[in-house]
Amino acid sequence: MQDLTRGCKFSEHMFLFWLICAMLIATSRRQVVTQVDLLNKVRILADAAKYDVSCSSSGSTRSNKAGGVGNAAAAGICHSWSADGRCISLLKILMTNICAYDCAYCINRATSDVERAMLSPEEVAEITINFYRRNYIEGLFLSSAVFRSPDETTERMIRALEILRREYRFNGYIHVKVIPGTSPALTTRLGFLADRLSVNIELPSPQSLHALAPQKSSEAILGPMGQIHDQIHESRETRLAVRGATAYVPAGQTTQLIVGATPERDHQILQLSEKLYQSFQLKRVYYSSYIPTVSHPNLPSLFTAPPLRREHRLYQADWLLRFYGFSAREILDDRHPDLSLDVDPKSDWALRHLDQFPVEINRAPYEMLLRVPGIGLRSAQRIIAARRAGTVDFDLLKKIGVVQKRARHFITCQGKFYGEASQDEQLIRAHLVADSPSGKDSGLGQISLFDLSLPVLSVVSSCAVDSGEF
Ligand code: SF4
Q1: Residue closest by Cα to atom 2 of ligand 1
Q2: Could you tell me the domains of the chain?
Q3: CA of 293 relative to ligand 1 center, distance in Å
Q4: Half-sphere exposure of 65 toward its Cβ, with a 13 Å CA cutoff?
C-alpha cells in the first residue's frame, strides 16, 4: 500500500482516515471486526497489485450521465506515477491473490508462501465507489490471480463491475485485466463494462512461456487479444450506425511483458511488439523489468539487478515504432540484437547510419527530420512550419525545441556543420554520452522516477500482480 499511495490523492493517510471513520460509526463489534478485516484484505491485495505497470486512462470517452457519478472523459482522470514509475491515479487492486496457477516468476504462484486474501465483488465495488466519492481516485484498475479457473475469476470481476456501473451508476474509468483462457462470452461481457482491457503477453516467446508458465499458452493469450480487437472494430461500426449503442472497450487494449526473466534479445522483443501493434492495434505494450525474488533454474539469480535501464530503452524504442516511422528491423537486427545502454535508440541508429547524415535542416523531408537525434515530433513539425516563412538558422533550432547538443552532430544549417566530426562514430558517441545528464546518457528521463532504494517485495506477475496500464 505504501508505494501505491505515494504522492497522489489516494494517500495512505486519507485511506486510513476513511477506514477509521467507518469503524467509529459502526455500531457493533461485528461491524468493527468486518472493517478491520476489509482493511487487511485491501492492504494485501493493493500491495500485490503495485507492480502492474499497465494503467493509463487516456482514450476513453465515457462521460457522466444524469444521476450518475464519475466521468471517464473528464481531464481530471490523469496519470499519476509513484516512485517506482507506476500509474497510481486508479485504485489498483487484485480481487484475489489466491492462484491456481504456478508461474515460476510470480510471487502469487500457487506454491508461494505469501499472505492470501480475496475481496467479494460487493467489496470491490464498495471500496471503489467510496474512494471515488472522497476524491482519492479517478477510476479502477482491477486484476486478479486465477481463482479456481479463468472463467470463475472473470465472473466475479464482471459482478463487481455490474454493481459499479448499474447499482452505483459509476461512469468513471475502469481497466480490467483479462485472464488468459477466459471464455469469449465472458470477455465480451467484460468489454461492455470496462473502458480498457488488457491481456498480458507475459513473456517474449512461446518457449519461455512454456518453461515458466506451463499452465498458460500463446493461444490462450493471443485468442482474447484478437477477439477484443475484432469487437472494438465492430463496436465502432455499430456506434456509427446506431446512435447511443454501448461502446465495447472504448479506451482500447494494452499488454505487458516481462523483460529480463528469459534470454530473448531486444530485437526479438521489439519485433514482437511491432507485430502486436500491427495485428491488434494495441494502445501500448508495457515492459516490466523482472525483479528476481524466486530461486528457479530457469530464472536469473536472485542477486541479479532488475534491468531498469533496458526497460527504459525498450520504451524509447517502442516510441520510435509508434511515432517516428521506424520498423523493428531498422532499430535492431541480428548483428545488433540489443539496445545500447549508453545512448538512446535513435542516436544509436543514427550512429550506425552516418552515411545518411548530416542532413540540411532547410531541405530535409519531415520523415528524415524525425530520424535526427535531438529532433522530436513537435520540433520537426515546427521546423517544417518555420521553413515556410524563411530560412531556419542554428539559433532558431533552440527556440523551436531541438536539443542542439545532440542534433548538431547530424545536421547542417544553411550548409554549416556545428559538430566536431561528421563521420566519426566513436567520437560522436563519446560526445553524446558526455553531453547527456550526469556525464553519460543514463536514459533515466523516465526512470528517474524509480527509487532503487525501495524494498523489492515481489515479482511482477503477468495477469494479476504485474499485468498492467490502462
Ligand atoms: S502470473 Fe497470474 S496466473 Fe501466474 S501465478 Fe501469478 S497470479 Fe497466478
Answers
A1: 463
A2: 2-331 (3.20.20.70), 350-440 (no CATH)
A3: 14
A4: 10
